[in-house]
Amino acid sequence: MPWLDFSLKLPITDPTWIFLLVLLIILFAPILLNKLRIPHIIGMILAGLVIGEHGFNILARDSSFELFGKVGLYYIMFLAGLEMNMADFKKNRSKAVVLGGLAFIIPIALGFVANITLLKYSVITSVLLASMYASNTQVSYPIVIRYGLSRQRCVSIAVGGTAVTDTLTLLVLAVVGGLFKGESGGWFWLWLVVKVIFLGSIIIYSFPRIGRWFFRRYDDNVMQFIFVLAMVFLGAGLMEFVGMEGILGAFLAGLVLNRLIPHVSPLMNHLEFVGNALFIPYFLIGVGMLIDLHVIFGHGDALKVAAVMIAMALTGKWIACWLTRKIYKMSWLECKLMYGLSTAQAAATLAAVMVGHSIILPNGERLLNDDVLNGTVLLILVTCIVSSLITEHTARKTAMDEAHPEEDRSREPERILIPIANPNTIEDLVNLSLVIRDPKMKDNLLALNVVNDSNTSEGLEARGKRYLDKAGMISAAADVSLKQITRYDLNIAAGIIHTAKEYGVTDVIIGLHHKVTIVDSYFGMLTENLLKGLHQEVMIAKFLIPINTLRRIIVAVPPKAEYEAGFQKWVEHFCRMGSTLSCRVHFFANEETAAHLQNLIRKKYGKTPTDFSLLDDWEDLLLLTGQVNYDHLLVIITARRGSISYDTSFEKLPTQLSRYFANNSLIVLYPDQLGEPQDAMSFSNPRGNNETQHYEKVGRWFYKWFKGIKN
User: DSSP class of residue 12?
Assistant: First the structure.
């Protein structure tokens, strides 16, 4: 019967079964190879070798592998640029250039000599083949991401060095290709350089501005994801348009969009998830399907060529990393991690060998023959294995060393409370908590919906549940857990205060109050009651643009702020925020406070780009209006009444903020305060309010003074 025909024809050509088989490989290969302690990347490549036409011929390397493979290739380079800490990269760019230059010059010099003497190739063939030894693809970069080391200094240097070596390698490829296309005239070199510089400048200048405009207008996660992918392929297409390889455009797109996509954000999580779940594994499986072990081991020249290629590539890269370590006095772990990241050959190497294999010489032979093609595939396999093993081992060792840093254990665990009331501010408040939270701590975000005891209608409860679900979806998209709390209390302020005490909350983030009546205060009664009932840090936030589009953080610090109990905590929050958003933090303070800030940041948060300016006149914040632009965040550090840094000028803050900074995003921060919070005055306990006690002391003093005069 036809419907019982289970005859199987290999290779499988039905798209449904092809995709299913690939998904099964992506699903089960890591599980199987984890038991053998083999990195996932090698598992994908070996799986491609097994199912490919040179293995069991289960699948043919059809157009789907070419399409998804190219997307995966771009994705690797894009994520490499996106994950880079631009502040660290700027600090280490000279080191990256040195490593990239050494990793290009040394392998190409060693390779050229070996190709001429051992393999007896011509000069042009030897140059092109030697340039392949210098190229590098960040195949093992996902390992670094998995261990949370993407912002290490040596990783920034290795990724930056990759950009240098791949640029030089692909320039050699473009030049050699031009020689055989009749385009090597006197203007060819100049025209190539002009095109690359011109289109590269367009990407660097226009992409951030287009991205900032888009993110401000559209907050839909799907639209943002599609937009980012479109920018990646636009950058790759522009580079291919001028004769370069698209991987450079993808890497450059990642670099310029770096500041707009925070490391901890829903969009970043979506990008990493899709790439690591589908595109990158597809690319690695496709690389494995190119390997033909029968031809390699059945032909003496192919094995000889492969041996020379592998030896030159591994040796040249090791010498380059060793010299970089010696020059900059880096540790052995940093050297090994740089070597692991700089060793793998795939993207530019495949591009070079495919171009060289397609060029026919006048004598009818190919510029790069079949031996080189097969040797290149073995080179890719061996270097990917070496790169993955070294990166896996070194990254694990580095992560273990950093898992037990010497720190102050007496500091209480961080717990950030986000009261949810206004649906328009939920996303901004949750995103703010994501960029200031300690990423090493788990379950430290709490969202609260307070239901008034006197009004417990089902409509209000259902609406509050929707608000909590929205907050949970935003944090879950960033792969951060958020505890949802619903509390019944007399009023919102009491609910927040009681929840903070019950859960040991260290920080509270609320949205800026919207004035309802003309007699209503700027911050509102809720904020005033919170400040009286809590001594923990309270942030009052208002955002006019998405947090990830901020370009600078302006922090106004009052005199004696360094003597407050919460000084170090809020400095850490905004330094962490600046590092996550890759934007500069500019502090305005008097000379003494600025000195304390500089000393603290230099010791503990030196990686954050910071500026310091003097602000002696705290009476009038009009002085800051020229410093704060629309895409800046203004942070005002104030204090509760009676604290060390409290000043009577703080009474003018509501008027100044509403008059001068109505069109700016801002945060008003009340730091931690020692002692007990000011209890709200009640008729049953009139002495509970510190301010009331102060007035009683003044009254007693006047009574004694008046009595003395009378006597």
Answer: B
